Amino acid sequence: MKNTILLLISLSFILALSNSETANTIPKGQFEVGLFQPLKYGMTEKVELSTHPLAFFLMPNLTIKNKVGDGTAARFSIYYPTYLLRLLTREGSGGLIAPDPTIPGIPHMVSIRQELLVTKSFSSTIITAKAGFSIATKFGGELDSRTEIEFPTIYQRLNVFYNGHGFNSGLDIRHSFGKLDILADVDIFYLPEDTNTTFIEHKSMLIWNKSNRFQTAVGYKLVYGEYTDGKDLDIVPVFDLVWSW
Fold this sequence. Notes:
The chain is built from 5 helices and 12 strands. The chain is mainly beta. The chain has a single domain, classed as Porin, CATH 2.40.160. The chain is globular and about 60 Å long.
């Protein structure tokens, strides 16, 4: 891999972006995919499968969303980041984890996140609240804290592998003006145990629904939280193209 840093930036967008954070599932037999959004498939009218295709071969992942009631869904996600972290352990360009003989190698590890989503519709506005928890387990060794990647959106999502568990919550508001939607959301990540800190993410986007098969989105994302060397606020532009068929 010639440019792992660009790949990591892409993965940070992949892990953090979504234009459709609701309890609804896509219709049975339908596919949906974006440049930075997961590939989704409507397995049944109540069950939706999704995976991040660009990340899959470096960080295998799968999400299952099950609609359990009117406006309510349970979402289950599983991630295996071992190969990605091992790839980033290198000297020079593309290395974000410096190799050190005193640091044990990256072990095999898996994280599981379980979330509850509740969606309410009010005329042209859709509001979704969510809450969840994550747990992680490691096989064949421990993960040294010196391997932490203090990169926006990546740090708080990988923290579960260092502390064993974590919590998240969020609120998503989407208002429609015909073919143009405005999306604003807030996500909170609570990192327990060693850090006992909170990360706050906010995203705002304009989404143009050209048709039922294609949409474009542009906006920004803010990330605020406390890293090892102190608190920091980051802002990045975001965009996406989404296709359905």
